[in-house]
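Hi C.,

You asked whether I'd gotten around to modeling the 176-residue construct. I have! Everything is below, sequence then structure, no commentary in between.
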Amino acid sequence: MKTIAYIGTSLDGFIARKNGEIDWLIQFDSEEINQSYTEFSSEIDAIIMGSGTYEKVLTFPTWFYQQKVFVLSSQIKQVPDALKEKVTILPFQPKAALDYLSDKGYSNIYVDGGKVIQSFLKENLLDELIITRVPVLIGNGIPLFGELNQDIAFEHIKTNLFSNGLVKSHYKRIQK
């Protein structure tokens, strides 16, 4: 099983404003960026996200995920009727969630959401990081990274520069 975080962050390391808004990120949307995400998503077969990310995505005009989404939450009990076949709530910690998905036959997992990414990193369960830096400072907000129990070394795989100034870097965890 492979786990990959794919996320955008401000230059100062935030994935959203404190209130969860991502207006600073959305203004950089482009066909080039959408194509990059489409290429990435064609290689994954399931998505794990946290409740905050899930609730934010519910405010978008359309549900754009093609793969099955698993929301890690002990608070959320139901999903909207229109998403019942697309979303499953799992009241699990990261390792138990991965065991569950492995048992269901999933093997390439996209991990999304700040707290979920942090919890996967804390348990050393993220194999790859794909981080797109947005050329804007927002001063404060929800950070991408948090405390770790140990150092986790990553190897740089490649970096892409987009015409609108975004810089996407791909890292693979170095196995110990």
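If it helps when you're writing up: Residues 26 and 115 are 20 Å apart (CA to CA).

Thanks,
B.
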